[in-house]
């Protein structure tokens, strides 16, 4: 009887220790994207998110990071997340428009030029709103965080002095709604993965790009272009990092919680830094000799009319394909009007 009294507490202690050890099993997650080293999204969001998760879990979760398409091309990263080659992968909806056409609502032209205004709206709809329900979830993934880079401009190698100068030019776009914008300008949209832009521009395969200011420098496009629009919002670009939903559900609850909270913080941090940086890019462009084009009042009126029609055209095209284009467009417009918390 006395031996039983001694052994029982020891067994309970051993079970608790085993349970604790199991809860703290080390987890290593592979993160893959297509961004070059030093890209602002990586510095502002991706690394911050990984570091935050590791810190919040007291080192239980660590990451192996594979940048610059080391695990696969940008267009294939969604598939790599689903197959398990990567645990967390960068997915640009524009690069997988056949699978995620609804998310392109965040890239419509004419919206706020502020990254935080568009990022907050996009994250709300992606995290647990209509985009999660109708797009991320059906594709078997859960977004960890998502940032929208707003205020796209047009940069060209050849001289432009009006919107008419753009007619017939081959302009890179990441796809989605920005293709509609390029066609409205009577230019030719050319879709490709962003890492291919520099070579295509240097070879003359394309005449220019539709880019945010911040992306010129990581991809060295600023060394090739000579002219640019200024003060416009020809569109935006959404960048999400996703995890396979089944992989996420198998993670311990404390890890899931840390990943979700780190995602919220990453969105807020990244968009604020992007907005802060934007002010300095115009000075950089002037310093390297890029000529900036400001539209005339007449051109501004014509452009606004074109932009106003793009959102409805985008929604109508999706409606015809059996997708809830109009519903998503309304949800997006409502999210932009709703103050962020």
Q: What is shown here, in short?
A:
This protein has 341 residues and is of the alpha/beta class. The chain has twelve helices and eleven strands.
CATH topology of the largest domain: D-Maltodextrin-Binding Protein, domain 2
- Largest sheet descriptor: 6 strands, mixed
CATH architecture of the largest domain: 3-Layer(aba) Sandwich
Shape: globular
Write the H/E string, N to C. HEHEHEHHEEEHEHEHEEHHEHH
Spatial sequence of strands, sheet with the most strands: 7-6-8-5-9-11
Oligomer: single chain
Rounded radius of gyration (Å): 23 Å
Residue share in helix: 40-55%
- CATH C-level category of the largest domain: Alpha Beta
Number of domains: 2
**What average pLDDT do the residues reach?**
91
* Relative strand content: 15-25%
Class per helix and strand makeup:
alpha/beta
Q: Helix count?
A: 12
What low-confidence regions span 5 or more consecutive residues with pLDDT below 50? 1-22
Q: What is the end-to-end distance?
A: 62 Å
How many beta strands in the DSSP annotation?
Answer: 11
